Amino acid sequence: MKPLLIAIRWVVGVLFIFSGLIKVNDPIGLSYKMQEFFEVWGMLFLNDFSLPLSVAMNVFEVLAGVAVIIGWQMKLFSRLLLILILFFTFLTGFAIFSGKIKTCGCLGDCIPLTAAQSFAKDIILLILIVILVLCYKQVKAATTNKTAILILVATILFSFAAQVYTLRYLPIIDCLPYKAGTSIKKQMQLPEGAIADSFSLQFVYKKAGKEISFDQDHFPADFDDSAYTFISRKDILVKKGNGLKPPIQDFTLYNAAGENATANILDYPDNYILIFVQDANDVSNWKPFADKLFTAEKTVNGKIIFICAEAEKLRAQLPDKIIMGCDATVIKTAARVKPTVYYMRGDSVLKKVSLYSL
Question: Is residue 36 a contact partner of residue 101, using CB atoms and an 8 Å limit?
Fold first, then answer.
């Protein structure tokens, strides 16, 4: 039984450490996923706490994984892990059966899992953790109590410090579709093998006091605008696609006149810089860093454009800058740190850094 328990401890421990470290690399990504659940559950008041909860959960995942591997306080940590995996299983189960959440973010954006895959993983982990709960007395600590405490304290400090770093200077490993070296236009294209949903246009007209329905391929032979009065039009799903979508969706930039300027910007032939800012708050905190960037780029005549979800508010604070509007959700994916600087040539991302690192 002991060799089996050792194997289970290592499997459970390594999986929790791996899962935690992936999310330590991008705590904001997990906070956004939490907000998605909060929105579905009508608990928007928790959105302000999503980032602290994300940081704490990531630290605990790594900590618990290390504790299980070294066999320290198995009664306590096996039960804590049981509570955690029951919670995770509930989340993945909810995502599957409600259909309101597509992915659970269990392994972040680096290893995207479907809700079904996450649920299967959690069920396996649940079984293994139940075994640890029942057999914790047979586990002997691999180190002395003092050494174990030092290891766990170091684990906590590392997990917390790594997240503080990524929150200011971007994820260490960029798994997002806007990472350096990518073409934004290519990322906006449907992936190979993608099949879109097929829809039929269903029209409803009234003729001689009666409603008549037909689709775009079966107009009545006597169809006449003077005899038929339009009532409504519906999109009817005929055949569902395979769900494959472009990595980048809804990337649209709007100028001050409200016109779509995406193509003009992404087709710009020379080097230029995009500065992504989620909102127009805290401008005074990052403006000195932006001014330093503008001063440096004057020597190479670099074109610098701000991208903001609250473009009008930002224009009022920075009237002499080029500012484009963009959807807030798009910016959340493109810029984990506010502000995030993109060095561009055409639609290619040459480099991507936090403004605070300049």
Answer: yes
pLDDT digits (tens, 9 = 90+) for 57-107: 999 999 999 999 999 999 999 999 999 999 999 988 888 888 778 777 777
Q: Decide: 339 and 290 in contact? Cβ < 8 Å.
A: yes
Q: Given this model, what pLDDT does residue 184 score?
A: 94
CB neighbours of 331 closer than 8 A, spacing ≥ 6?
Answer: 276, 277, 278, 307, 308, 309
pTM of the predicted protein model: 0.81
CB 251 within 8 A of CB 188: yes
- State the Cα–Cα distance between residues 285 and 292, nearest whole angstrom: 13
Half-sphere exposure of 358 (CA within 13 A, CB side): 23
Q: What are phi and psi of 103, to 5 degrees?
A: -130, 155
- In terms of Cα–Cα distance, which of 159, 79, 83 is closest to 122? 83
Name residue, tokens 């701000």.
306
C-alpha separations of 202 from 38, 85, 165, 225, 233 in Å:
35, 46, 53, 17, 6
Q: For residue 65, which of 7, 152, 6, 166 has the smallest C-alpha distance?
A: 152
Q: What is the DSSP secondary-structure string of 336-357?
A: SSSSEEEEEETTEEEEEEEGGG
**Residue 97 or 197, more confident:** 97
Domains of the chain (ranges, CATH numbers) = 2-169 (no CATH), 198-239 (no CATH), 248-357 (3.40.30.10)
pLDDT at residue number 158: 97
One-letter amino acid at 119 equals: F
DSSP-assigned beta bridge partners for residue 202: 215, 234
Q: How far apart are CA 60 and CA 288, in angstroms?
A: 36
